[in-house]
């Protein structure tokens, strides 16, 4: 177990007692926290830029941003784990950790900031901000303001944010794209398209690791229901076949599951278009939480070929077509059209021109890298 159940922060958060035993009703929460740390440790220490070789400086900088953090059980756990003494995380690495939790409820922000201050040593780099996910991500360039930690020239984008009234902490998240520095974006249980906002924030800021646990897949569910209804009407009027998934979609429970799976596979394909390797897995048993599916993106060191991107675009659009999806928030952010272009309809080769799939996604993300903050 990488996280001791008697850790002081767990006691302060009411998860466990001094003896390490979970408090009443907190057994599942403790197991969820421990499993999350195990998963995040593996993802961070096996990230391609870490495995590429040792940094010039023995200390690696790790920036963690947890949006929609709630009471911050997992935020505290991640910060505590990677702030351990060298080798304390099982890797022999020394991390300089800066962690930001973002939460909309003012009482939780006040409470978690107070707990972080009271815990003292080891939690100096942990802070919490009051903001809606969309507002925070729109106002924050996670790799800006390098001067604050590297001694360079001020970043004009940070100054621009200050002019707009953005909080100081949001302006000064430093450039983590130096030697051995890592940026990790976490968004667990962000509702519906808030997960897409968080994913695009990770893509836009070239995060090394993006960890999400989506929930409330309403955007695709509504469109799937409408597509099923249209297919049923056509079948009644013209005697044609109903939706290809008609029998599966007859049952509300299966429609919900189908919408969840389709949404997260669409997100996986879009992350792959942005040169991430994607993992989808259950990070803990369903008896601990029903929202237990993680969609994880690991930034690749080598870009995918144009033919690979074109194939990913075709697969994405085919999946959208099957489920009657004409809009998807992450695709909108990445400027990936859901309908095939005129050239593609005529059978033009995607290898010769990447078209509206991954090539457009990469161009859109690249074009926004130097444009300051992305709008919401």
Map the helices and strands.
Elements: H1 8-12, H2 27-45, H3 48-51, E1 59-67, H4 73-82, E2 94-103, H5 106-119, E3 126-130, H6 133-139, H7 147-150, H8 156-163, H9 168-171, E4 182-191, H10 194-204, E5 209-215, H11 218-238, H12 246-249, H13 252-273, E6 276-282, E7 293-299, H14 306-322, H15 329-334, H16 342-345, H17 358-369
Parallel strand pairs: 1-2, 1-4, 2-3, 4-5
Antiparallel strand pairs: 5-7, 6-7
Helix pairs in contact: 2-4, 6-10, 11-13, 13-14
How does this structure look, described?
- This protein has 376 residues and is α/β, with parallel strands linked by helices.
- The chain has helices spanning 8-12, 27-45, 48-51, 73-82, 106-119, 133-139, 147-150, 156-163, 168-171, 194-204, 218-238, 246-249, 252-273, 306-322, 329-334, 342-345, 358-369, and strands at 59-67, 94-103, 126-130, 182-191, 209-215, 276-282, 293-299.
- Strands 3-2-1-4-5-7-6 form a seven-stranded mixed β-sheet, with helices on both faces.
- Strand 2, helix 5 and strand 3 form a beta-alpha-beta unit.
- Helix 2 packs across helix 4, helix 6 runs parallel beside helix 10 (194-204) and helix 11 (218-238) crosses helix 13 (252-273).
């Amino acid at each position: 177990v990488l996280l001791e159940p008697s850790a002081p922060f767990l006691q302060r958060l009411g998860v466990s007692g001094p003896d390490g035993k979970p408090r009443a009703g907190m057994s599942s929460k403790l197991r969820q926290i421990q499993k999350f740390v195990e998963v995040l440790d593996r993802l961070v220490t096996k990230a391609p830029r870490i495995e590429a070789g040792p940094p010039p400086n023995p200390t690696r900088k790790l920036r963690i941003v947890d949006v929609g953090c709630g009471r911050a059980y997992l935020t505290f756990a991640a910060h505590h784990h990677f702030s351990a003494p060298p080798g304390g995380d099982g890797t022999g690495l020394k991390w300089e950790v800066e962690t930001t939790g973002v939460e909309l409820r003012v009482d939780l922000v006040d409470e978690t900031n107070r707990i972080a201050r009271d815990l003292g040593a080891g939690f100096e780099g942990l802070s919490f901000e009051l903001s809606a996910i969309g507002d925070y991500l729109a106002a924050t360039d996670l790799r800006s303001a390098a001067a604050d930690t590297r001694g360079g020239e001020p970043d004009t984008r940070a100054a621009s944010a200050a002019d707009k009234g953005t909080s100081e902490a949001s302006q000064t998240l430093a450039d983590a794209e130096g030697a051995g520095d890592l940026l990790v974006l976490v968004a667990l249980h962000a509702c519906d398209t808030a997960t897409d906002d968080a994913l695009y924030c990770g893509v836009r800021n070239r995060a090394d690791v993006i960890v999400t646990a989506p929930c409330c897949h309403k955007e695709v569910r509504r469109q799937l229901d409408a597509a099923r209804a249209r297919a049923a009407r056509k079948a009644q009027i013209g005697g044609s076949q109903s939706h290809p998934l008609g029998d599966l979609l007859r049952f509300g429970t299966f429609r919900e599951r189908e919408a969840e799976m389709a949404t997260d596979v669409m997100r996986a394909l879009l992350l792959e278009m942005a040169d991430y390797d994607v993992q989808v897995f259950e990070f803990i048993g369903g008896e601990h939480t029903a929202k237990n599916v993680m969609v994880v993106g690991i930034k690749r060191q080598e870009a995918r070929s144009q033919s690979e991107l074109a194939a990913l675009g075709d697969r994405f659009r085919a999946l959208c077509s099957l489920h009657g999806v004409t809009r998807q928030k992450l695709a909108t952010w990445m400027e990936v059209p859901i309908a095939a272009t005129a050239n593609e309809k005529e059978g033009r080769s995607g290898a010769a021109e990447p078209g509206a799939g991954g090539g457009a996604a990469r161009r859109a993300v690249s074009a926004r890298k130097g444009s300051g903050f992305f709008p919401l």
